[in-house]
Every structure is written in C-alpha cells, then in structure tokens.
Amino acid sequence: MTHLSRTDTLRLLAGGKPALPEPHLMAHSPPLAYHDPQFIDSDEGRPVRIVSEYLAPLRTFCDMGVTATVVFFGSARARAAGVLGRYVEEATELARLVTEWSATLPGSERLIVCSGGGPGIMEAANRGAALAGGRSIGLNIGLPQEQRPNPYITPGLSFEFHYFFMRKLWFAHLAHALVAFPGGFGTLDELFEILTLAQTRKLDRSIPVLLYGSGYWKEVINFEALVRHGTIAAADLGLFSFVDEPLTALALLKSRIQLTAAPPGTPCFARSRTPATP
After folding, report:
1. Domain 66-256 belongs to what architecture?
2. Measuring CA to CA, which of 47, 68, 101, 258 is 20 to 30 A from 28?
3. Where are the domains positioned within the chain?
4. Pair 153, 137: CB distance under 8 Å
C-alpha cells in the first residue's frame, strides 16, 4: 500500500494529483553489473574475474606484439650475496644472451624473456633482458609476502594475477622453452606443470626444459628413483636436460627451440590436444 503525505491526500480530495518528487530527489540508476565492485568481488563474480585474467593479458600481448617467450623460473628468495648468489648472476647473464640472440632472429624480438615478475631469480631474468636492451614480461601474483613486481619488467608487460592457475596458463601458452633455476615449492609447482604437459603430450609443440644447476636438482629430486619405482618411464628423463653454464644453456636453446612463423602481433600459442587430435 502506498502511503501519501498529508499534502498529497488533500490534493486528491480536491481533485488534483499528488506532487511528483523533485528530480534531484529521485533514486540514482544502479551501476551496470560489470561496473559494480561489490558484484565483481563476490563469489558470483568469480567466473568474470577468471576470464578477465585470460582476456586482459591476451589483449596486451596482441597490442604489444608479443608472440613467443623463454620462461625463467627460480627462487624469489635468491640474493646475490646469499647461498644462491651464483644463480642470480648466471640467470642475469643467460637472460641477456637469450635477448641478444632473439634480436638476430627474423622479426623484431621474436623471443621475449618471461619471469614470474618478483624478486630473486625472476628479477635477475628481467634485469638480464634489460641489460641487452630488450623487453621482458613479468607475470606477478599477489601474495602476502615476497612477491612484488621488480623494476626491470618492461612497462606495459607487468601483470598482476590473483589465480595461480591463470598465471600458469600464461607461462605455458607462449613458452617456447623453460629454464628452471633452483627454487622452492613455487618453482617445483611450475616446473612439474610444464613437465606434465610434455609427458602427456597435451600441447601440440615441444617445450625444451633446462634444469639449471645440476648439483641442486639432482640432490633435491631423485628422478632415477621415479623410474625405478615405475611412476615415470625411462624415456621421460629425456623431457629435460641439466645445464650449469649460461653459454651451454644458450647453445641448447638455440638447437631445440622450434620457431614457427606467426602473423605480426599474433601470439604463437601452444595448442591443447584432445584424445581425438592426431
């Protein structure tokens, strides 16, 4: 039931009409759903947020002509003066060499160094690309500690992710090679994601994987034990190679990376195979 004011009631009794609200007192139009922060940040808005973490980087990569990457993984905790200091210096050097090599390939900056965007080995990789005068990508993720974008990422190619799985998708989507330096749980997670994709042949191209620092990796992971226990095949040990020097790593990358022609500005995705795919 509508309740009228005394003034409006008297107007009706006199044969008049209730007064309309003043325009400035009328309710404002509600925001569009995709402009409503309360909706976007809600549980119901989660699918929109997930899709945004795919479409926003895709648009940027197309606009900035990013087609292929060499991905660097490694510890965020590594420091030049710490126990992993050697790897910080050598990640910088390898990223510099890769970027210089890329400049000689057909098409401008055919391969771009990509890191997780944070400190440690990630920062070293972005710094090496910058020293060579090239661009580099940082796929950062918001964490309570450690992870903040480093200053060597190319402006416009620094991304902030909320979802780990969307970040890992972009690591794999454009990767033409992966170099894994010593790292902890995050590095292991990302490394085994790529190795699983390679082992299962889920992607339609091979991604060379280099484990940088053979002493570290052979101590941390007993790959031969996995074969001995029957959890992987002996042939799976060929999915990766150990390297210990930047020049050796560069030589392997040059011999194993499969470059394919792509229209300018079109990302060269690793397509996903299905059971029906030949």
Report:
1. 3-Layer(aba) Sandwich (3.40)
2. 47
3. 66-256
4. yes
